[in-house]
Design brief:
Blueprint lengths: L1 E4 L2 E4 L15 E6 L7 H19 L3 E6 L8
Parallel strand pairs: 3-4
Antiparallel strand pairs: 1-2
Amino acid sequence: MTIQEGNNEVDLNAPYLLEYDECKVDLSIVVPCYNETKRFPRTFDETYTYIKRLKKEKNITVEMVLVNDGSRDST
């Protein structure tokens, strides 16, 4: 997935943290991203880093749900 940030295209490809056979989710993090082109890349990176740390340290399954409903920018 990519987003447009100013004149730059930002690549948001991230590996899946869940394997297909893992269905249990211990924690869901919902990130609203309405008209957040400028802030979203940093928010995504910091949240994703936190999720990876939680998965490693606490051995829990975490999902991140990104919610965007009709942004007028390139979010």
